[in-house]
Specification:
The chain has about 325 residues and is of the alpha/beta class. It contains 12 helices and 11 strands. It has 2 domains: about 150 residues, 3-Layer(aba) Sandwich (Rossmann fold), CATH 3.40.50.10950; about 150 residues, Isopropylmalate Dehydrogenase, CATH 3.40.718.10.
Length: about 325
């Protein structure tokens, strides 16, 4: 794919802004894990041609080259690191990050669980003192800015301590994207604290944790229902006084089910597009899906580039 084609985005797209932000920095050296099919290999090549990543293809070398031939892709100039199978490729990619030979990881043709298992391995993974979490960066045509939704992919039923890390990870992601003080809405079914609804108690506690400096860099409010988190009119109708309501940058969901349903409703009913990244590890991890289009894949790479650049000045511990 030619570079000018790779950068093409729909007019007014919020994801286009991510691509523009990522144009200036040098490409991030990225370990692409097990790219043994045409789709995952093409995604890495497209991102390389767009100068978002410098890919290192990690996996069975013969399968990678066979996939390139089948997809009519040239691997000239790309480093290939041989690994016998997908599990070994995931472990090798993590080792490359730990040794400073890569600054990001991109998922290829393997299960997400397999990649994350290697990333969280206590002996050789990429764990920090913060819980890993997934962030969707969603371009909703009817919303005036990128909307971050977390966590809809990794943490099933997070407790308060895990939610604290989820919130901080999302704030760090938004700040890397150029949002100076992201507005964070902690979602629940209602906007008042109800002792019978655990999500409202967690939301109130997270806001107080931010007041006490346990969460930094963002402006939190919650509990907020979805409507008054993203609609100023809905917030005004309920007489909610808030600097977050109606203009949230980040939506923090109570659990993986609600997050997954929210994100997919936006994709399929609102024609939203998305990028996705795992935060909280020693390096950003791009979890692209087989259903992702070219723009979504490139936007995920752009976010990873921005996060890696931000981490150089303030690494996650």
């Amino acid at each position: 794919m030619a570079q000018d084609q790779a950068w093409t985005a729909p007019p007014g797209s919020q994801l286009e802004r991510l691509l523009a932000l990522a144009k200036a920095p040098a490409p991030v050296r990225t370990a692409v894990v097990h790219p043994v099919d045409g789709l995952s290999l093409a995604g890495a090549v497209e991102a390389a041609e767009a100068r978002l990543i410098e890919p290192v293809l990690v996996g069975p070398a013969h399968k990678i080259r066979d996939a390139a031939v089948a997809a009519s892709l040239s691997l000239d100039g790309y480093e290939v690191v041989d690994a016998p199978h997908s599990h070994a490729a995931a472990a090798q990619a993590c080792a490359m990050v730990r040794e400073g030979r890569a600054a990001a990881i991109m998922k290829g043709a393997l299960h997400t669980d397999e990649l994350l298992e290697a990333a969280v391995d206590p002996s050789c993974g990429l764990r920090t003192d913060r819980r890993m979490s997934h962030v969707f960066i969603i371009d909703v045509p009817t919303y005036p800015k990128p909307l971050l939704v977390t966590d809809a992919a990794i943490n099933i039923a997070p407790d308060l301590a895990v939610k604290r890390d989820i919130v901080q990870n999302a704030i760090d992601c938004a700040r890397a994207m150029g949002v100076d003080r992201p507005r964070v809405a902690i979602l629940a079914a209602v906007e008042t604290v109800n002792p019978k609804m655990a999500a409202t108690l967690d939301a109130a506690a997270l806001c107080k944790m931010a007041d006490r400096g346990q969460i930094v860099g963002g402006l939190l409010d919650g509990p907020l229902a979805f409507d008054n988190a993203i609609s100023r009119e809905a917030a005004d109708a309920k007489h909610i006084v808030s600097d977050v309501a109606g203009q949230a940058d980040i939506l923090v969901v109570p659990d993986i089910e609600s997050g997954n349903m929210l994100a997919k409703q936006l994709f399929y009913l609102a024609r939203a597009q998305s990028a996705g990244i795992v935060m909280g590890a020693r390096a950003p991890i791009m979890l692209t899906s087989r259903s992702d289009g070219v723009l979504s894949r490139l936007a995920s790479c752009a976010v990873a580039l921005l996060v890696a650049q931000a981490a150089r000045s303030k690494p996650v511990r």
